[in-house]
Design goal:
It is a single chain. By secondary structure, the chain is an alpha/beta fold. The chain is built from 16 helices and 14 strands. The strands form 2 sheets. The chain has a 7-stranded parallel β-sheet with strand order 3-4-2-5-6-1-7, with helices on both faces. α15 packs across α16. The structure holds adenosine monophosphate. Adenosine monophosphate (AMP) binds next to α3. Adenosine monophosphate binds next to α3.
Length: 486
Amino acid sequence: MSFHALGLSDELLAAVADSGYNEPTPIQRQAIPLVLMGRDIIGVAQTGTGKTASFVLPMIDILAHGRGRARMPRSLIIAPTRELADQVAQNFLKYGKNHNLSMALLIGGVSFGDQDKALEKGVDVLIATPGRLLDQFERGKILLSGVDILVIDEADRMLDMGFIPDVERICSLLGPNRQSLLFSATMAPPIKKLADRFLNDPRMIEVARQSSTNANIAQSLLMTGARDKRDTLRELLRAEEVTSAIVFCNRKRDVNDLADSLKRYGFRAGQIHGDMEQRDRLSTLEDFKADRISILVASDVAARGLDIKGVSHIFNYDVPFNAEDYVHRIGRTGRAGKTGIAVTLVTSADADLVADIEKLIGARIERRGAAPLETGSESKAAGKDGGDKDAAPARGRSRGGRRTKGGDRKAAAPAPEIVAAPVPEPEPEPEPKAARESKAAPAPVPAPARPTPAPKAAPRAARDEDIDDGTWNGPVPDFLSVSARD
Ligand code: AMP
């Protein structure tokens, strides 16, 4: 099926063709005609399915006629994080290039600019995170009664981050005759309740990403000692054919420490986590997309839903506390039909977390490295996996308060070719000597893994304050809308 069958305008079809997309994805095939008909929809779909275009494309055509009035946006998209909001904005720019729509982005963490004038003048599309939108509403900068189309994107993430009350409040501020589109990877009861309350006779569209995409991801677990993780990671980065990689840590301070460490060893690395200023996060992302850095060290919240093309590898430096996060992490690779590799560093303390993940994905992940991992289900001989006597418990593990000097240092020596190249080691790791003595064997590229079924919702574990739960700890300047096209 081609995009031509969906009822989109010629201008829009031209922009889609320029993007290089020939065929609509399943969610686009199902959603676009319904949205054009004015129906409310619930899209049960994750990032990677093409869901953004499934609402952006028909919205552009619907909004093509008419004009935004002062402080009264005609459409509103709420997204859980700034990066996601920015990505939706990029989609509007890409597909709306033949239209003359005005757009504003209302997110925390970026400074006030002249884009508030665009809001004042009236925008067709307002993309916002819930908290910042309510702030501006309360300051009288926006009236929401003129919104004809509402999109709630990644409602499951809103739920995780405690935003559902804000979303309900926003919905109650909108006029009654709007069209509403809700997207969520899961339909947990609070999301169902939200839909029941604020959507009007919605059509439910469900697409599974995991069954198709995960077939392209070769997953493996690499056993290592808790104190050998950095050595092991560096060996992996040198041994694997890494063109671009995201390395996930469970804690924000570890994101900083690890990224700084990799830079000291000559890797082109950058970091992204929730304590960074918005402009730094966006510029790191730009650096990664433009291949100025090839390794992005990230926390879960900062990286969730990011659409970065061509990520060859995912490395889980820490096994995620929530099995569901594992699925989201590895979903950053193997996108759009490409193959990807996901390697998780595992210590003996991580057995329970691994068992949770395997239960969720319904498959056993390939083990590599010398020591076996004893998960409850596979052996009674737990505790005999050797080589990791120094392993700290998975929760509350600390690096003794060691902090890095600054977040934004450039790589000491550029190392564009990581694969099998001897990387200079200008500044040795300030790690205890004893920790360096038991080194994990470097691992070969793993064989393709079995397909994994779609995940079920997993309970989220209690989090300590250094885990990136989306809470903004840095300064929060005023809003800025990034783009207005009138
Ligand atoms: P999303 O699920 O919206 O995050 O999109 C995932 C990725 O798929 C993005 O890189 C999109 O640019 C890409 N994409 C969207 N629609 C299509 C399509 N019809 N064909 C191929 N790729 C697409």
